[in-house]
Design goal:
- It contains one helix and 44 strands.
- The longest helix is centred in the N-terminal third of the chain and has 6 residues.
- Strands 1, 4, 5, 7 and 9 form a five-stranded antiparallel β-sheet that branches. Strands 2-3-10-6-8 form a five-stranded antiparallel β-sheet, with no helix packed on it.
- The radius of gyration is 56 Å and the shape is rod-shaped.
Length: 677
């Protein structure tokens, strides 16, 4: 930027107030600052050069920091816009010129500054500012690709003053004051969702789990499909997404039998889809007949092993007694031989034997119930006494219907003898996980039952004075009432801004006074600093140089002029549209007046209405009434444009605006009631 004796620079270092939105596939972030956000410091060029030939001018300094994203989007456009709303200066400083600089990667302060080499942006981006002297909107689009995602942007506004204001602190001293708004708009090369929407994953495992990477939703990793049910015969432990292929035909797994013969052979029941206990074998006992050996039950092999016993005469009284014999084979011989007919075959009275000494049959000893026939093992039944010997019991059979299907009393099982009561499940007392977003989990007597997640009722009551009520996933949370920031900017030319409980309301600009043309009540002049009408008293006297009593110091003719040819006093016809007729004392006649000319009354400021010409004077206009948003998004969003004094309407984007809905549309600005849950 060239250095001029009179110039106005604007230096803006962004403090971000981001207003992000999606537009045509690109993400746009805008932040703005006003004069209240500025640092007051020296002109950048003057500070660096310190050239005595130029006055050191004060300026408004702003710093803008770009938005921060975890991803690294490219900047396709950076639009800097300065809206100069008003320029107020004392008379000696009037005509102040305004210039602007935009600096890349430069953080400005009141004591240090970027080097002068930073003044020019990448060649081809153009210059900014240009010695403006009137309010207006000036902008620069840095679309040449010179701006990186992390570059700090500096913009400065410096009033270049001269005359009585030269070399002074014009802003600090109150000689010059501006009202303006500076906005920087970043446009990126991709859509960005700046906050995790919490709904990236669509719950469909077939396309993996979608996640949030800081800028948007990222597609998931394709899963391994298969059967994920461990009870299915085709269960795939590596599968991460069930594809519905599980097969539950209940084939024999081949693992039911535990290999222990004493409890029988366990088998597979395809109807119950379970292993069934086996029937334990019946142990053998010695039959008391030594002729076929001594029977012994082997619990390892579950077989009856037989040990042969040497036969012979075991009766020591016999003539042929054999002490090595363990089984009497009936070969004993006596002096009084046994007839072999003593025993009657009835076991309950014992075995009758032959007594060779007595040469007679001897009664047997009746067998006695030992009282221990039953071994207490119910799995092989109850052993009983038949009067002669212990008789094996009948092992009980699993009825297969022990469990009654009522989970509240547990699962009844078969212990090999009887149905055994199950253990009723116990409420663990921790069904509810304390996370209100998925409802309250409860105990149904058997299992924990999922709760019903609460639904966002639409918390905000639409009353801005108590803030915006939000939904935290469980309850409505009270909003933070807005606080009066102190709306009035102290600039009297735009009226007194007030607080309506929600927003700052623009003030009504004062009506600028103009001189009424009547010098008898003084000369009216508008004071832009005080917004008051200053009146300079008139000096009465004769102002006509041709009069004999002309007073050169008089500023208001009081009709006292005296002429050789006196004024008859009736020249003016009172019609202002043809000017004021006067008396010519030299010509001794009335002279026609000069009709007033329309000066172009309207000052171009729509906020105070359109000033008009009534043929004689400028008549003040009627300020327009600003519009406000009616709260009905279906007809668009109304916003008052202070530049055009018109109501700008932004069309709505209809759709579902509830982030918890299945069909949530993050681009929607107006909820059309289509949300699905």
């Amino acid at each position: 930027m060239s250095r001029l004796n009179q110039f106005f620079k604007v230096l803006i270092l962004l403090s971000m107030t981001a207003l992000p939105h999606l537009l045509s596939g690109q993400y746009v972030s805008t932040s703005c600052q006003t004069v209240t956000d500025a640092l007051i410091g020296p002109d950048r060029n003057d500070f660096v050069h310190n050239e005595a030939a130029f006055p050191i001018n004060e300026g408004y300094l702003h710093n803008f920091t770009p938005p921060s994203f975890s991803c690294d989007p490219g900047v396709t456009s950076l639009l800097i816009t300065i809206d100069i709303m008003s320029i107020i200066a004392i008379p000696d400083c009037e005509g102040t010129s305004l210039f602007g600089n935009v600096l890349r990667n430069c953080a400005l302060s009141t004591t240090s500054i970027c080097g002068i080499t930073q003044e020019a942006l990448t060649p081809g981006c153009g210059n900014f500012g240009g010695g403006q002297t009137t309010p207006g909107v000036y902008s620069l689009d840095l679309n040449c690709g010179a701006v990186n995602n992390s570059d700090v942007i500096g913009v400065d506004i410096i009033p270049s003053v001269g005359g009585a204001c030269a070399g002074t602190s014009a802003i600090t001293d109150g000689d010059v004051a501006l009202t303006y708004e500076i906005c920087i708009q970043y446009t990126y090369d991709q859509d960005i969702i700046p906050v995790d929407p919490g709904n990236c994953d669509d719950g469909d495992c077939t396309n993996g789990v979608e996640t949030y990477d800081g800028c948007g939703c990222v597609a998931g990793t394709p899963p391994i499909s298969g059967c994920t049910d461990p009870t299915a015969n085709n269960y795939n432990s590596a599968a991460t997404c069930d594809d519905g292929s599980c097969n539950f035909d209940c084939p024999d797994p081949g693992t039911c039998d535990d290999g222990l013969c004493i409890n029988g052979v366990e088998t597979w029941d395809e109807d119950l889809c379970d292993c069934i206990s086996g029937t334990p074998p019946t142990p053998c006992v010695s039959d008391g007949d030594c002729t076929n050996g001594f029977e012994f039950y082997n619990t390892t092999t579950c077989e009856c092993e037989i040990f042969p016993e040497p036969p012979g005469c075991t009766d020591p009284t016999a003539t042929n007694y054999n002490p090595g014999a363990f089984c009497d084979d009936g070969s004993c011989t006596y002096d009084c031989p046994d007839p072999g007919s003593c025993d009657d075959g009835v076991c309950i009275n014992g075995i009758e034997t032959w007594d060779e000494d007595l040469c007679d049959c001897v009664a047997g000893t009746p067998p006695v119930n030992p009282g221990n026939c039953d071994d207490g093992d119910c799995t092989n039944g109850v052993e009983t006494w038949d009067g002669c010997e212990c008789v094996a019991g009948t092992p009980p059979v699993n009825p297969g219907n022990c469990d009654d299907g009522d989970c509240t009393n547990g699962v009844e099982t078969w212990d090999g003898c009887d149905c055994v009561a199950g253990t009723p499940p116990v409420n663990p007392g921790n069904c509810d996980d304390g996370d209100c977003t998925n409802g309250v989990e409860t105990w149904d007597g058997c299992d924990c039952v999922a709760g019903t997640p609460p639904v966002d009722p639409g918390c905000d009551d639409g009353i801005c004075s108590n803030g915006v009520e939000t939904w935290n996933g469980c309850d409505c949370v009270a909003g933070t009432p807005p606080v009066d920031p102190g709306c009035d900017d102290g600039i009297c030319s735009n009226g007194v801004e007030t607080w309506d409980g929600c927003d700052c309301v623009a003030g009504t600009p004062p009506i600028v006074c103009v001189d009424d043309g009547d010098c008898t009540n003084g000369f009216e002049m508008w004071n832009a600093n005080t917004c008051e009408c200053d009146v300079t008293p008139a000096v009465d006297g004769c102002t006509n140089p041709t009069a004999t009593n002309y007073n050169p110091a008089a500023t208001c003719d009081d009709g006292s002029c005296e002429f050789p040819c006196p004024d008859p006093g009736n020249c003016d016809d009172g019609d202002c549209e043809n000017g004021e007729e006067t008396w010519d004392g030299d010509l001794c006649e009335c002279i026609a007046g000069i009709a007033p000319v329309d000066p172009g009354c309207d000052d171009g400021d729509c906020t105070n209405g359109i000033e008009t010409w009534d043929g004689c004077n400028c008549v003040a206009g009627t300020p327009p009434t600003p519009c406000v948003n009616d709260g009905d998004c279906t007809n668009g969003f109304e916003m008052w444009n202070a530049n055009t004094c018109e109501c700008d309407i932004t069309p709505p984007v209809n759709g579902c605006t509830d982030p918890t809905a299945n069909n949530y549309n993050p681009a929607a600005t107006c909820d059309d009631g289509s949300c699905e849950f």
